[in-house]
Amino acid sequence: MNVIIDICVVPIGVGVSVSAHVAACQDVIREAGLEHRMHAYGTNVEGPWDDVMAAVKRCHEVVHDMGAPRITTTMKISTRTDRVQHMDDKVSSVVERLGDKA
User: Fold this and answer.
1) Phi, psi of 40 (to 5 degrees)
2) Under a CB-based contact definition with an 8 Å cutoff, are residues 42 and 49 in contact?
3) Closest residue by Cα to residue 22 from 33, 35, 36
4) Strands 2-12 and 70-78, how do they pair?
5) Which of 25, 93, 35, 22 is nearest to 56 (CA)?
6) Residue 24 sits in a domain of what CATH number?
7) What family, per the record (predicted)?
8) pLDDT tens-place values along the chain, 102 residues long
9) Is residue 78 within 8 Å of residue 86, measured between CB atoms?
10) pLDDT at 1
11) pLDDT the model gives residue 100
């Protein structure tokens, strides 16, 4: 089963800047070979369920290894059984409806 997730991993107890931790998670996702799009408050990731969830787990392991004593993660998960849909399809569908207003 394929999945699209929106994930935001927040290390706690590491100070104000978390960009190094975000970059480390981006490396994990890239190394897993998963399609992903980072945005201002998280990352969209798509791929096979087990691969995506393994990457989420690996992000936690890496961020803990970087010294974060605690991590809070929010995640939205989308699956479909009626057809194959990619994250870019979801965006282009709305852009098409917006037409010239996009």
Assistant:
1) -60, -30
2) no
3) 36
4) antiparallel
5) 25
6) 3.30.70.930
7) Belongs to the UPF0045 family.
8) 999 999 999 999 999 999 999 999 999 999 999 999 999 999 999 999 999 999 999 999 999 999 999 999 999 999 999 988 898 888 888 899 998 776
9) no
10) 92
11) 75
C-alpha dist (Å) from residue 62 to 28, 34, 95: 8, 17, 36
Among candidate residues 19, 28, 8, the one with its CA nearest the CA of residue 74: 8
Residue 6 is part of which domain span? 2-98
- CA dist., res. 5 & res. 90, Å (int): 13
Structural domain count, the chain? 1
Diameter of the chain measured on Cα atoms: 48
| Secondary structure element (H or E) that encloses residue 47, with its range | strand 42-48
Q: Which pTM value belongs to this model?
A: 0.90
